[in-house]
Predict the structure.
Amino acid sequence: MNYKDYLIQQFNIDPKVCDAVSRAEADLSDQFNAIDDTTAICQLKVLKAFQDNRINATHFDWSTGYGYDDAGREAVERVYASVFNTESALVRPNIVNGTHAIAVTLLGLLAPGDSFIEISGTPYDTLQTVIGNGEGEFNGTIRDYGIKYSEVPLGADKDIDFEAVSRAVKPGTKLVAIQRSTGYDFRPAIPLNSIKKACELVHGIDPSIIVMIDNCYGEFTNAGEPTDYGADVMAGSLIKNPGGGLALSGGYIVGRSDLIEKISYRLTCPGIGAECGLTYGQNRNVLQGLFLAPAVVNAALKGAVLAGKIFDSLGFEVMPPVGYERSDIIQAVKFEDPDKMLTFCQAVQASSPIDSYVTPVPWDMPGYSDQVVMAAGAFVQGSSIELSADAPMREPYIAYFQGGLTYEHSSYGIIKSLNELYKRGLIEL
């Protein structure tokens, strides 16, 4: 029995769906080869970081209490600093998500009266509450501390508007932030060459201005990282790309040592900083997940590319467009119809190893202004490097597809979604 027959007989997939996916995969062979080449570079970069930092089995051991002299924690942070080509790193399980990592970074580096500018347009929904722009009353926001916030919209090409940035950023601006990934906007991720140009522009205005990158969903999608191109500090989540599906929680912050020290005082408290912090026996999972991360990102990237190719061929607008240089693992599909969008997300849930029998429905999630439907039958709750899809319930009804620990699983999520849309008469093949 071959793969197509198995899909048809064991999963009730229509043969037309199998044929559509096979045609798309054949057309994508060159792009898949290019992704493989990037993965090979990233894998060796990670391997070198492990070897250069002399990682051994004692780094997997537990510590207790305050976590003083936790050799494993220190080893993890040295490896992260090496991988991302920075002076220092914080990699901690008590960073609860990517938004927390970004918030700790901002609140650790900014003081009352400072000016903070986002130059990649309006940031992701959950960061709006951190800034103080979101709906509802929240204490301790950026604005509560008297920090001045502004943003520079993207240009007509959905990339950084460098002329507008040069007008907005002035000597005395304390921090400039870039959200690399698309978030819930309908735009491509910011490419590395634009990040490099932005860093050069900002530092040319004033070398003391801190350039911070929200790197969520972007790790290992290219051979380099933003910190290779001038970013001063960068933050992300361990249950996205760099955790490789094995990290149970946590986030990372990498950058200049003086900045990391200031941020560590916000993460714990002044006088303690990075010296304390129990890792709860997670060092092996974090290290092994990082080692596997390039291959896992490879699977997720190929799945995203496949989704874009197929839904583009069916007449849906997709972002990034087919053939566009990718800088994150997210593939957005504009359905223009709530039923199509919900069917897509529910099919992704039905493709999952965990909670496949559950039907996701829109709900009021903390930090989001609209109801959101989230499909994520994951081994690690909320892990968006695992096969997942989410969509805010607002026009034009865009679903965001990402993840897949293996390409076979990522592609099956697409196959299942196509099958459900076709069976319900919502698409034609």
Q: What stands out?
A: The radius of gyration is 21 Å. DSSP finds twelve helices and twelve strands in the chain.
